[in-house]
Amino acid sequence: GLLNSKKGKDYKFFWLDYIFQKSLGKKFVLLGDDSQKDMESYRLIAEKYPDKIVKIFIRQTGFSQDKRQRSLWEKLKGTNVDCMYFNDEDELENVENLLKAV
Predict the structure, then answer these.
(1) Percentage of the chain modeled with pLDDT above 90
(2) What sign for the dihedral angle of Cα 53, 74, 36, 101?
(3) Exposure of 9 by Cβ count < 10 A (0-12 exposed, 13-18 middle, 19+ buried)?
(4) Phi-psi region of 80 (alpha: psi -120 to 50; beta: other; left: phi over 0)
């Protein structure tokens, strides 16, 4: 199953879209990382449902950002939905406090 996933390339976007459509009056916090499709999927959802998203948290998985990750992050920030890109060196306490504030 790991090598031959049947989910399809836009699985995460379509699943989130379905949840957002069915969750009238609810707001969401999205948590993801920069390793696969989270930033791209979250950008599409943020463009479609900006008023339903309280905040998007993206964890940096590597030691640095590559060109692709920087580009995806800039596009995600361009949605004007509140976003935070953090890494393991960021103080966990600060991230936990931000989550509590949401």
Answers:
(1) 61
(2) negative
(3) exposed
(4) left
